[in-house]
Design brief:
By secondary structure, the protein is an alpha/beta fold. The chain has nine helices and eleven strands. Strands 8-5-3-2-1-11 form a six-stranded parallel sheet, with helices on both faces. A three-stranded mixed sheet has the order 4-6-7.
Length: 249
């Protein structure tokens, strides 16, 4: 009888905890460890980069991390690869932070889209973002095709910016006018959320922020978190080398 009573009490306690969590706007399934996964993407946005980032997002979900940080430095890349990454980002249940770093890095073209899609967009001092006008590979587009591709890219940027609460018109300018901004300008325009010189400082700064993921509201808890860095596997490294524009011609 006691075991039955105990089981009943456990069930009632579980119901109460669930109700409390629901009332507070947070899901009990989102309980996270004080672990931050970090990957570095310093390349064009290619199929190998997309595979690497998507795998990292899935691993972050599995680990129930406090956040996944993508350190980004890219001149841009393929539309299909960019969209595969962003699709996974928008479906993510764990917070994703894109950090354009270190100083001298950029998030150009496809990188600008990816940064805008982050739950937290951050940049280091001495970085830049934007210049997201689409260009054709292997030749110029005719005017009709250029208009179609530009309108499609602009609409994609608008919907991402709107979802993340960023200025739609300013983000769209990166596509239509190929403009770019420094980290200071982007922060002032509210296109990004944080300027931070180092990863450790960034994790301290964003601690306590509440972001909306695909699973609902999540409080970021990154203060004094354990940082785990991921590396490309051999296959991804080989594909990255093949995709490098300095060696692929």
């Amino acid at each position: 009888m006691r075991s039955l009573d105990f089981a009943a009490r456990v069930r009632r306690a579980g119901v109460v905890l669930t109700l409390v969590a629901l009332c507070s706007g947070f899901s009990p399934a989102l309980a996270a460890s004080r672990q931050v996964n970090v990957i570095r993407v310093e390349s064009v946005i290619s199929p190998s980069a997309a595979e690497y980032i998507v795998a990292a997002i899935k691993q972050a979900e599995k680990d129930k991390v406090a956040a996944l940080v993508i350190e980004l430095d890219t001149p841009g890349g393929l539309d299909t690869s960019m969209r595969a990454i962003i699709k996974e980002m928008l479906a993510a249940e764990r917070p994703i932070v894109v950090y354009v770093a270190p100083s001298g890095a950029r998030a150009a073209s496809a990188g600008a889209f990816i940064t805008v899609a982050a739950h937290v967009a951050a940049m280091a001092p001495g970085t830049n973002i934007g210049a997201a006008a689409p260009v054709a590979m292997g030749g110029q587009m005719d005017k009709t095709m250029e208009k179609k591709v530009t309108n499609d890219a602009a609409a994609y940027m608008r919907t991402i910016a709107e979802k993340r609460g960023r200025p739609i018109d300013l983000a769209e300018e990166w596509v239509r006018k190929a403009t770019a901004k420094t980290e200071t300008e982007a922060l002032k325009a509210k296109l990004i959320d944080v300027v931070s010189p180092k990863l450790d400082d960034l994790l301290q700064t964003i601690d306590g922020r509440v972001v909306t993921t695909a699973a609902g509201k999540v409080k970021i808890e990154t203060k004094d978190a354990t940082v785990t860095r991921g590396e490309m596997n051999l296959r991804e490294k080989i594909l990255k080398i093949i995709a490098d524009p300095t060696v692929a011609y």
